[in-house]
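Sample entry (449 residues):
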Amino acid sequence: MRDLSGIVKAYDIRGVVGDELDVDVVRDIGAAFTRLVGGPAVAIGYDMRESSPELAAAFAEGVTSQGIDVVYIGLASTDMLYFASGHLDLPAAMFTASHNPAQYNGIKLCRAGAAPVGQDSGLSEIQELVTHGVPEFLGAQGTISERDMLGAYATFLRELVALDGIRPLTVVVDAGNGMGGHTVPPVFEELPVEVVPLYFELDGTFPNHEANPLDPANLVDLQAKVREVGADAGLAFDGDADRCFVIDGNGDPVSPSAITALVATRELAKEPGASIIHNLITSKVVPELVAEQGGKPVRTRVGHSFIKQTMAETGAIFGGEHSAHYYFRDFWRADSGMLAALHVLAALGGQDGTLADLMAGYSRYAASGEINSTVRDQGERMRAVAEAFRHRNGARIDELDGLTVELTDGSWFNLRPSNTEPLLRLNVEAGDTGTMAALRDEVLAVLRD
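Predicted structure, serialized as tokens:
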């Protein structure tokens, strides 16, 4: 019996290569995944980590052992893998550990049409099958073929965004030695955009900085280069290039909530009155602007499986998370940082002002950013914070995802437990920096008491 409890996460499989994740385990996962989703084939892509080709080959062995064919798409970003799943109408597996350090690897799985496979939508069944042994298949083995999807992926993305007539732009792109270095050139090659590349060499050891743009330390080189060359914007991709962070021409980060509001506005212009998904830690500017544009804002929990499920239920055209995941109905409801980046460049290039000026209209509030606190007992600390605010005059409390408290002056905070670490994650927003800071400090005083 194999114990996968340490590597099966909420949305994917992830672990240290050799210690937790090896070819034998991955081969069994491939066979179990095939039992779950069926045929006729499974598409497989992988990132630039040294272990990725070997693990992908082991997974392919597991798939073909069940009589199902494999279509290799080779080196890919995660959103390129989603494109392959949608375009070919096949279940698919992506080998990546996203922004995790080099010793990690993992598998992101989806059904045909890029439908997510998470803990509640197939991962637990895969874990159960592997734990107790995947039944042997006695028929003919499946076959393995290769298919280059990079050009079709690039063309498809450009066709989803109105880029005709944009003015010439200079954009610094930091790929962090991740898959953006593979996908940015073909996507941008036909656009009037001069790309200034940073760390485009594919290197799964991440020699320059972690491929995690959520950490401000990993944006420093990009910010400096944007200022140095006088670029119109900067883009930073994570390791598997499914998330994109934006820097304005001054070298300042643009909030992913503001990007969500911008893209939502553009999508609503194409389909007035449509629904837009936002998770509960995005800025209030998102539902406000969606409503002002005649759209229907729909609030959901954090996490791609919740976003995609709600998009399917509501027919929403777009969804955004404050973690810089952006979901598009016309991209099989999957997330694509590259597609969001193209929307930003289309909006910027369609007018004469700077990106900072453009984004000012999508930034109305002061936000704390996510603040992590290590605690001994998540539940006890959550209850302490809830009790501290429960009797505050006019306070509204909900527990859709963690604890959200909204005060009468419009300020609010959300406190959520980490699924994998003894952490509580705090996000605070208010009408001005002073009010935000006071509320942040008040919550932290209770939380860390």
